[in-house]
Amino acid sequence: MRVVAGYTVGIAAGVIAWQLVGQHSQQQIFVPLTDTLHRLGELVSDGTLGGAMANSFATYAVGVLIALVVGALGGLLLARSELIRTAFEPYLTGLYAAPMVALIPFLLAFLGFGFWPKSLVVALFAVFPVLLNTQRGAQSIAPELLDVARLYRSSEKDLWIHVIAPYTLPFFMTGVRQALARGLVGMIAADIFLSANGLGGLLISASQVFDTAEMLATVLVVTAAGIALMAIGNLIERRFARWKVDQ
Amino acid sequence: MKHPAAESTTVRRAQPVADGRDSRPEPAEAATGRARRPWWRHPAVVRAVAGLLILVIWQVVVETSGKNYVTRPTGVITVIPSVLTEHLFLSDVGTTLTAVIEGLAMATVIGTALGLLVGRLPDVRRILGMYVNGVYAMPIIAVVPLLTVWFGYTPTARLVVIVLEASLPVIYNVAEGARTVPRTYLEVTRIHRAPWWRVWFGVVLPASLPYVLAGIDLAIGRALIGAVVAEFIAAINGLGYYILFNVNSFHEDRAIVALIVLALFAIVLRALVSLVIRRALVWYRPV
Predict the structure, then answer these.
(1) B239, B92 in Cβ contact below 8 A?
(2) Which of A70, B32, B73, B157 has a Cα-to-Cα distance from A14 of 20 to 30 A?
(3) In this complex, is the C-beta atom of A220 within 8 Å of any C-beta atom belonging to chain B?
(4) Residues 87-106 of A with CB under 8 A from B
(5) Looking at the predicted complex, does its ipTM rise above 0.85?
(6) Which pTM does this prediction carry?
C-alpha cells in the first residue's frame, strides 16, 4: 500500500510542480505540462517528430552497430594478443579519457556533416565500453577452462567457439548496455553539432525561436528513448548474465 | 561493483587448492618467454614504436587527403611552444578546469546527500527514484539548449551543465551503496542505541564512501563533456570554445593541444581518485 502511495505521490508531485512552475513563469522560460503535451501532439500529428526520430535513430542504429562490431573485434584482439595490448592500450586509454564531444569539430572539418560522419560520432561515443568490457571478459578466462579444452585436444577454432565466445559474451553484453546509453548521447551531439536535423535539430531550432514547449516536448521524447534503451540494455545484460561463470 | 560483503566468495577462491596446481607455470605467460625477452619486445619499446606508427599513419592519411588545413603531427609539434605561452590559451585552461573542479565539488556534495536519502529512505526512493533514473537515462546535452535560455550564454550555464552531468552518477552510486550497507552494522548501532545522526554520519556515510568515489570517478568524464558541450553551444570562453574557434578558423594544430590538455586533465583526476581509494580507504578492497 505504502509502496503504491509512494510512487503515486512521486508522479503527482512531479506533474503538479511542472504545471504550477509553468503557469507562473514566462512563456520563453518554462511552460506548463499541458502545453508541452499539446505541442508534443502537434509535433506527432504533423509528422515533424516522426521524421526527426527516423532521421536520428537511423544514425544511431548504424553508429551503435559499428561500435559493437569494432568493439568486439578490438576487445578480443587486445585480450588475446599481449603484443597488441602493450602496444596500443596506453593510447586507447588516452583517447578514452578525452571528452568525445571535443573531437566533433575535427570530424566535422575532416569528413563533413552527412549521414556517415554522424554515425561515426555515435560509434565513437559507444565503442569504448564495448571494447573495454569485451577485453576484460576475454582476458579473465580462467586458465582451468582453457587447460581442459586443450587437454581434450580442442582446435583453436573450437576453443574460440565453445570456450572464449560463450565466456566473453556476458561481458560484451555489459558493454552493449553501456553503448546503447552512450550512443544516444552521441546521437544528440551529432544532431546538434553536425547537420542540425533529427531530434537534436529540433532542440536547436526550437531554442532559436524560444519555443520552450517544443524543446520540452523533445526532451521528453529523448528521455523516454533513453529510459527505453536502458531497459532494453538491462534486459539483454541480465539475459546473458546467467552464462557468467560464477567467480 | 560489489559491496565488501560480497568479498567472501573471492577470498575463498583465492586460496590455493592443495593439489600442487599453483606451482605449475602459467601456460600463456611461460610460452612467450617473459623472462628472456629480446630488447625489442620490452613494453616501453613496443609502446614507442606503436606511438610512432600512429603518428606516421596520421601524417600520411592527412597528407594524402589533400586537405591542408587538417591537423597533422608535424604541425602540432611546431605550434606547441606558441600555444603553451599564449595568454588566451592559459586563461581558457584556467576557466574550464576551475569550472570542472567547482562543478565536481558541488556534484559530490549534492550527489552524496541525495544519494544517501534515496538509498536509505524507501519513501524518498519511491518519490525521487524515478526522476533520478529518468534524468540519468537522458543525455544531458538535450537540455543544454534549454539551460542556455534559462541562464543565458554565461559561465553559470556551464557550471549548471557540469553539476547536472556530474551529480547523477554520484547520486546513483551512493544510493546503491547506502541501500546495501550491511545490516549487521545497523544492528550494532541499534544495540548501542546510537542517535540518528551517529547512524547516518558514523555508519551509513563511511560505509558508502567507496561508492562516492566510484561515482566521482564516473563523474569526471561526464563533467568534462558537460563543460565542452556548454562551451560549444553557448560560446563561453574555455578550452572547449578554444577548440571550436581554432578548428573553425583553420588552426586545428592549436586545437589539438587543447584536446590533449583536456585528456590529460581527465587522466590526472582519475588517477587522483584511485590514489585516494588506495590510500584513504585501505579498509576497502574493491572486488
Answers:
(1) yes
(2) B157
(3) no
(4) 87-88, 90-91, 93-95, 97-106
(5) yes
(6) 0.85
Q: How far apart, in whole angstroms, are the C-alpha atoms of residue B92 and residue B84?
A: 11
Rounded to 5 degrees, what are φ and ψ at B246?
A: -70, -35
Q: What is the pLDDT of residue B12?
A: 34
Cα–Cα distance for residue pair A134/A127, rounded to 1 Å: 11
- Identify which of B13, B141, B256 has the shortest CB distance to residue A189: B141
Alpha carbon distances (Å) from A87 to A36, A132, A182, B6, B87: 52, 16, 27, 35, 36
For residue A47, give the DSSP letter.
T
B164: its cell numbers: 547536472
CB A203 within 8 A of CB A218: yes
The dihedral formed by the CA atoms of B262, B87, B249 and B231, expressed in degrees to the nearest 10: 50
Which residues in A lie closer than 8 A to residue B130 (C-beta atoms)?
7, 10-11
**Measured distance CA(B99)–CA(B210) in Å, rounded:** 24
* Residue B141 CB-density burial (10 A; 0-12 exposed, 13-18 middle, 19+ buried): buried
Residues B185-239: tens digit of each pLDDT: 889 988 999 899 899 998 899 889 999 999 999 999 999 999 999 999 998 999 9
Asked if B112 and B201 touch (Cβ cutoff 8 Å), the reply is no
Amino acid at A136: R
Q: Which residue has the cell 570562453?
A: B237
Residues 97-136 of chain B with CB under 8 A from chain A are 122-123, 125-131, 133-135
B233 in reach of chain A (CB within 8 A): yes
Task: Residue window 26-45, chain A: list those with CB within 8 Å of chain B.
Answer: 28-30
Do residues A89 and A78 touch, judged by C-beta distance below 8 A? yes
| A210 Cβ contact list (under 8 Å, min separation 6) | A27, A28, B149
Query: A16 exposed, middle or buried (CB, 10 Å; 0-12, 13-18, 19+)?
Result: exposed
CB B163 within 8 A of CB B103: yes
Q: What is the pLDDT of residues B4-60, one digit of tens each?
A: 433 333 333 333 333 434 444 444 444 444 556 788 778 888 889 999 999 999 888
pLDDT tens for B87-122 read 999 999 999 999 999 999 999 999 999 999 999 998
Q: What's the CA gap between A207 and A176, in Å, rounded?
A: 32
| Nearest Cα to Cα of residue B46 among A235, A128, A81, A216 | A81
- Compute the half-sphere exposure of residue A61: CA atoms within 13 Å on the CB side of its CA: 6
